[in-house]
Amino acid sequence: MSRRLLENARRRLEAEQGSPPHPWGGRLRVALIYPNRYHQAMSNLGFQWVHQAINSRPDALCERFFLPDEADLQEHRKSGFGLFSLESARPLTDFDLVAFSLSFENDCLHLPTLFELGRIPFWAAQRGDDYPPVLCGGVCAFLNPEPLADIMDLFAVGEGEVILPALLDCLQPPVLPRQQLYDKLCRLPGIYVPSRYQVEYAGDGSLATVTPQKGAPRRVRRQWLERLDDFECRSFIHTEETEFGDLSLVEISRGCGRGCRFCAAGFIYLPPRERSAAALIPQFTAGLRCRQRLGLVSAAVSDHSEIDQLQHAIHQAGGQVSVASLRIDSLTANEIAVLKESGHRTVALAPEAGSQRLRDVINKGFEEQEILRAVRLVAEGGIPNLKLYFLLGLPTETGRDLEELLQLTKKIRQIWLDAGRRRGRIGHLTLSVNPFVPKPFTPLQWAAMTPQAELKKRLRSLRAAVGRLPNTEVIAESLRAAELQALLARGDRRCGRILPWLAAGDNLRTACARAEVDAAFYLYRERQRDEVFPWEIIDSGVRRSHLWQEYRSALAERPTSPCAPACRR
Length: 569
Fold this sequence. Notes:
Blueprint: H1 3-14, E1 28-34, H2 38-41, H3 45-55, E2 60-66, H4 70-79, E3 97-101, H5 111-118, E4 134-137, H6 139-143, E5 154-156, H7 160-171, H8 178-185, E6 191-192, E7 197-201, E8 207-212, E9 220-221, E10 247-251, E11 253-254, H9 265-268, E12 273-274, H10 277-288, E13 293-297, H11 307-316, E14 320-323, H12 333-341, E15 346-352, H13 356-361, H14 368-380, E16 385-392, H15 399-423, E17 429-435, H16 452-466, E18 472-476, H17 479-490, H18 499-503, H19 508-515, H20 519-523, E19 538-539, H21 544-555
Parallel strand pairs: 1-2, 1-3, 3-4, 4-5, 9-19, 10-13, 13-14, 15-16, 16-17, 17-18
Antiparallel strand pairs: 5-6, 7-8, 11-12
Helix pairs in contact: 3-7, 10-11, 14-15, 15-16
């Protein structure tokens, strides 16, 4: 036992609003793990929703687990005290189901540590009936589950509102022997059981065949919720000890029909859906009881058909509005005024590419004059600081495109300077430049990633040029982290073998060498048109032919009209 660890957990739990205790006896017990620290986990609406949904059932309970903070991790290892739940301090092995909520590929780095502290074997083949089944849900589970297929027993493919009820019903007593249970679960819509598929590879290393066994479907169809109004999705638990501690978050819509070719969220959450104002306003009221500021969560907040009514309702209730970023081509002066009144000192816009040619490649759907119009609205609205998102290493990118990015930055900066001089204060301009990662189920899934050496060269050039502009800076994601993200996003079952080596301290190159994984094979080659992709064990609902057509349009620098390909049930 470690009194220090237990006291830290008790303090954290007491600081929360909205987490009442739940009776332990006579219920299906679910351990919900976020594979990162509490600070990140409690900012995740999906994680919060699953916890709330399970605890709303009379026949189930859910308790939370997190990656320990660094000091706590050292205490765990020093004391030998295992991972325990926040609510009741019970170990993982006391639960009937262990469920990971995995939203970001790089959080896979923490899986070996969590299994070690939880006293559960890392590889699925080593876990017998003495251990609870291990399930993975979240975005990574229906983007590409294959790198974790030898680690997880089960995957939830799609949106929890649709999948969770039947899954929990199936796990209720009487408990079936493990293999019989998996035979039953693999027939549930949206449940992928990797052990029920035989995978074979071709001589060149690519995936050859995936053969279902024991009644498993040929592909697992992604599940999605048709009517968002039927479920709340908001911050059910509030705590200061999180990234958005001063906000109450509310999801106002899901999915996006804009068709940006690089954006995984724009395709794996199709079709686009929104909650009505009638359904949202009670959620706003609940959030405002805990926080004065409401964070509106959506792929495109300003695309909501009732956004003005929603913002007005929040202000009428005495609240303030917060958004992560703004759509350039639908931004209005009223929207900026609302953010200014709500105390926003920084807003973010996402041009994604500096040249019109590259914006056509990725189907961004607007031109330079629209970018400059949006910047003027922000500047004249009195917001002091501006953040701009750009991608580096997009397919077909050249030095000319980077030069046009710099020219666009200078034009934006001039607008910012002029507005700053008029109000007597020049704000700050930040370029967030991040490596392009080709993601599954997008038109650019066939594209190669730009090698790290070339990305370094281009980033140095941008930093040098922008460094000469006062009040302007470049920030960038780690290139090594981007490569790991790409490998886990695009890999097959063999790629999961690198995780224990990475957790032990090896860098990516060394880990790949030890695990006999050729990173370049997954990262730096353009995929063939008819190549079998590991992630296509999932039926995303978007036709492959549509994605291929969009990829060819990208290479031809030809934008297409925003559309949402039909999603099949």
